[in-house]
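User: Earlier you gave me the apo prediction for this protein. Now I'd like the version with flavin-adenine dinucleotide bound, so I can compare the two side by side. Same sequence as before, with the ligand SMILES added.
Assistant: Got it. Here's the input I'm using:
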Amino acid sequence: MIIVIGGGPAGRMAAVRLASAGKDVTLLERRALGGQCVHDGCMLVCGLNDVARSIRNTEFLRGCGVIEGSVGVRYPEVMRRLEEVQARLSQILERETVEAGVKVEYGVTAEVRDGRVVVDGVVREAEAVVVACGAEMFVPDVPGAGLRGTYTARTIRSMPALPKRMAIVGGGISAAEFAYIFSAFGVEVLLFARHELLSVLPERMQKAVRRDLSSVAVYEHHALEAVLGEDAVCGVVAGGERFACDAVLFATGMRPSSPHVSGVLKREDGSIVVNERMETSVPGVYACGDVTGAPYFTPVSRLQGFAAADAILGSPRTVDLSRVPFTVVLGLDYTVCPCAGEEGVTFSSPNIAGPGSVWHVSDGSVGTMELTVAPESGKVVGFASSGPGTGVVGTYLGYLVRRGVTVHEFSPMLEVHPISDGLYSMIRFAEGHLRKE
Ligand SMILES: Cc1cc2nc3c(=O)[nH]c(=O)nc-3n(C[C@H](O)[C@H](O)[C@H](O)COP(=O)(O)OP(=O)(O)OC[C@H]3O[C@@H](n4cnc5c(N)ncnc54)[C@H](O)[C@@H]3O)c2cc1C
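And here is the structure of the complex with flavin-adenine dinucleotide:
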């Protein structure tokens, strides 16, 4: 029997693949299938962002004079309905997992001690173990961090009502996404970043991000020093200044969740060290997903889950983490596929008018397309695009970039029309320019 610990994207993919290959697989999960992605992360942010964008789009179109009336958010109802959706997603995942032949045990906090799985003090024999315990929210160790009124993405659903003023702490993707959401919900949001906000995005995109976050008070280079309050939050100290607020949301990163795993080699942050076959330092024990450290993305976890299963099945695959595309979802999608150190010429232009952007031609906020191309070969080495739905384009273009596709191969493409992504015109422009050169 093979034991998989954790039913998030990594563990579930590993379990399903192993069971589909005829292995006897038991998945141990302490909570519900879907992990952080379904319950505290991607789906939570998607659900809230859909509501936030609807509000902002309605306000924008009212400003254009084409619709009338106002919209407001029914926050407790949003959270209640979202929980129903998340439970439904979990059920769908459960059906898929069980139908693949995986036995799922819930409410189990498993331990791994020197390569053996222990549940409630009893050893479970297994021919291989896959550790996919994910990561926990990291909360900085500052005074007041545990006061009533402080939240993380994991606990935000327990916030009973919208606060008047919320401090969001963090300078990364989640901090920006929550700032967009809660400001659209009518909360006065103060965002405190230790360094620059969203430094993962290319400079050109920063301006558009600021537009999306125009109603957020952004304080960069303001490290959080304390949360203030007796019993509940009444303010924060950041960058040496005091700010009043009645809720604090920590979006300060994640830490691998490995306290239940001992005997394997770990880094200082608790991440489990694996080789390219997802093998840990203990033979027969594999690890995949967030528990092995950054980057903390669902598709990476899924691929690592497959890789762990394939290694157990005797046909190992390598997971290439050199160019992991990602999206920041605000008013627009901001999608980036980093260049991974390869040099190139960067072409950029505004994105185009199409679904989701045509009304924004009036204020110029249609987003941008940026393509980096190796001049000799014409190989696309990276890109960054902002606009409606650029995450979809990024998924497929990211794959082609990893495959080494050139603008010359790309140029006969037939685009769908209308779309709001200017990739095709940028590719043709880049191709024409390189030919001339
Ligand atoms: C706010 C937020 C937004 C995010 N947005 C995105 C996004 O837009 N795109 C993206 O790609 N990624 C996003 N992520 C990251 C994504 O959710 C994670 O990378 C992904 O869920 C990791 O999958 P995993 O299987 O490695 O771990 P997890 O999803 O954390 O799953 C681990 C599972 O193991 C279980 N478990 C842990 N320990 C034990 C134990 N000892 N015994 C039994 N069960 C155990 C847990 O209950 C959990 O179900 C976001 C994360 C957050 C917090």
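For your comparison, keep in mind: The chain has ten helices and 24 strands.
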